Amino acid sequence: MSPTPAYKRVLLKVSGEALMGERDYGLDTETVTRIAADVADVCAMGVQVSLVIGGGNIFRGVSAAAGGMDRAQADYMGMLATVMNALAMQNALEKRGVPTRVQSAIPMASVCEPYIRRRAERHMEKGRVVIFAAGTGNPFFTTDTAAALRAAEMGCNALLKGTQVDGVYSADPRKRPDAQRYEQLTYLDVLARDLAVMDASAISLARENRLPIIVFNIHAPGAFVQVMRGEGRFTTIVE
Ligand code: UDP
């Protein structure tokens, strides 16, 4: 087992739903604490880590719009939901002694820093975890796209997508036991086969910036560390 991390700087995207644990809504403190522990272990390896956390466990714009709400208004609510998740993760990381900064794409001076690229980069160089909150700051986007955008801006070596299963499958393996698991895919494979891994704008942005995407199971304790060593089970999406 090689102790050397394969990456210097990464961005991990965690969906809001991943923070729910067994709940139907909101945050499960135990789950947030466990994911924070994995992030702390990766930081201890010397990897510079940043995070984008979704908001789907609290509010999803597209669902509210389907219920009759104005889409842009609903999306702003969704972005605010991601700030709550970011603050919960910051709390869990700092409890483990990991210095963490939250930067929001929607400025809210009394809660966290505004997003400033150069400052975020400096935080990372100093070994602080930066959590990018409020997505891209624009309605009609998703936190997947925000993750690809921030990873490109930060010059990350890889974009990690923590999901419910250990990689990308041809169908949901929890519903379809015959689903095929992929070890490696190209960006175009994902787009052409419409694989449910990240939305198309996130995949396109990663492709334009030659940013490898690594999909792994966020709920398997220690999986993040293993992936950083190039071990364990994951799917890589590259050119
Ligand atoms: N959102 C947005 N612009 C962004 C990112 C997110 O409007 O750049 C809103 C959108 O309403 C979305 C919600 O925030 O539904 C929560 O984000 P997302 O659905 O990506 O969270 P996840 O599915 O990862 O939990």
Automatic annotation (TrEMBL):
InterPro entries in the cross-refs: AceGlu_kinase-like_sf (IPR036393), Asp/Glu/Uridylate_kinase (IPR001048), Uridylate_kinase (IPR011817), Uridylate_kinase_bac (IPR015963)
Compartments reported by the entry: Cytoplasm
Mechanisms controlling activity: Inhibited by UTP.
Binding site for UMP: G55, D75, T136, G137, N138, P139, F140, F141, T142, T143
E.C. code: 2.7.4.22
Entry annotated with the keyword Magnesium: no
Described function: Catalyzes the reversible phosphorylation of UMP to UDP.
Protein name stated in the entry: Uridylate kinase
Annotated gene: pyrH
